[in-house]
Design brief:
The protein is of the alpha/beta class. Helix content is 31%, strand content 21%. The chain has 12 helices and 12 strands. It has helices spanning 55-63, 86-92, 102-105, 112-122, 129-138, 155-167, 185-202, 213-219, 237-242, 247-254, 293-297, 315-318; strands at residues 7-19, 26-39, 44-48, 70-75, 78-79, 95-98, 173-177, 205-209, 222-227, 230-235, 303-304, 311-312. Helix 4 packs parallel to helix 6 (155-167). Bound molecules: iron/sulfur cluster. The site of iron/sulfur cluster (SF4) has 13 residues, from helix 12. It is a peripheral membrane protein. This is Peptide ABC transporter ATP-binding protein. Residues 13-253 form the ABC transporter domain. It comes from Paracraurococcus ruber.
Length: 327
């Protein structure tokens, strides 16, 4: 894509300190370890991976809701102002986040209309009953539902109300963190369709964070797969999710039930990753069915794969190593 990105993150880093056991020595956990990504107007980047891989932390770092320990974020080509400053607060009106649990995101004691109007007051924007009605209609709610309390709405209606509130400031960027995982399956498709429609109408960029690969494929223009705090593969959804190049992405994709597919599910050996105990070399090597000696020594860089240019962090995909010959 030739258009300059709305937001560009380079080498984001987030570390936490923790202790192993009560008297154990302190260890450093790298929740996000050098993540770079670009978000473009009218486009969605899907971020996928197992729970604990760092995708939600990445979303918060991008918005400045959590301090970064390294790297930086540029908005419209300029460095993002430091979080908490007046310049950052002014920019926050243009970036909104939608969380997983709509009931938790809404105030149970306030009617929906008052909550949709809240961001307008916070950011000093003109608010009126008509504007709230317009926002509710935009997400498929009726203006008279402004008087309802969160518990009087269904799960899908509550997520629509959360979206109406997020749209109140006409954001240029929406970060959606698992926005459908708390909803009934029957309602998930409606919310996915709504997100696509809203993007077509308003042209905002979206970072769609989810462990649901089918949902990511439906809404995303590009997709990035994360493992233990790093992006291991990135490209167009049809390419990455139909023919993944990284062995971890292959295992993830193989877990999606697909009636016509012959390939069996790839079951990874070993325990799920522990961010406090990051393996040397390629962090995936203890579980990787294709690991070779180099993988335990050297971490592969995320770079374009020879041939098709897809970004992959794997020695084999890059041609840096060859599979050992069968005995
Ligand atoms: Fe597997 Fe090695 Fe590739 Fe890592 S670098 S994904 S261990 S083959």
């Amino acid at each position: 894509m030739s258009e300059a990105p709305l937001l560009e993150a380079r080498g984001l880093l987030r570390r936490y300190g923790m202790r192993r056991g009560l008297l154990g020595r302190p260890v450093e956990v790298r929740a996000v370890d050098g993540v770079s990504l670009s978000l473009h107007r009218g486009r969605t980047l899907g971020l996928v991976g197992e729970s604990g891989c760092g995708k939600s932390t990445t979303g918060r770092l991008v918005l400045g809701l959590e301090p970064s320990d390294g790297g930086g974020v540029a908005w419209e080509g300029r460095p993002m102002p430091p979080p908490g400053t007046p310049a950052w607060r002014a920019l926050r009106a243009r970036m909104q986040m939608v969380f997983q649990d709509p009931l938790g995101a809404l105030d149970r004691r306030l009617p929906i209309g008052a909550q949709v109007a809240e961001p307008l007051a916070i950011h000093g924007l003109p608010g009126s009953r008509d504007r709230v009605a317009e926002l509710l209609r935009d997400v498929g709610l009726r203006p008279d539902q402004a008087a309802r309390y969160p518990h009087e709405l269904s799960g899908g209606q509550r997520q629509r109300a959360v979206l109406a509130r997020a749209l109140a400031t006409a954001p240029a960027l929406l970060v959606c963190d698992e926005p459908i995982s708390a909803l009934d399956v029957s309602i998930q498709a409606q919310v996915m369709n709504l997100l696509t429609e809203l993007q077509a109408r308003h042209g905002m960029a979206m970072l769609f964070i989810s462990h649901d690969l089918r949902a990511v494929r439906q809404v995303s223009h590009r997709v990035a797969v994360m493992y233990l705090g790093r992006i291991v593969e990135a490209g167009k959804p049809d390419a990455v999710l139909q023919d993944p190049a990284h062995p971890y992405a292959r295992a993830l994709v193989s877990a999606i039930p697909h009636p016509g597919r012959r390939q069996a599910r790839i079951l990874l050996p070993g325990d799920p990753p522990n961010p406090a105990d990051r393996p040397a070399g390629c962090a995936f090597h203890p579980r990787c069915p294709m690991a070779v000696a180099l993988c335990a020594r050297e971490a592969p860089a995320l770079k374009p794969r020879p041939g098709d240019g897809r970004l992959v962090a794997c020695h084999l995909a890059q041609g840096d190593a060859t599979l050992p010959k069968a005995a």
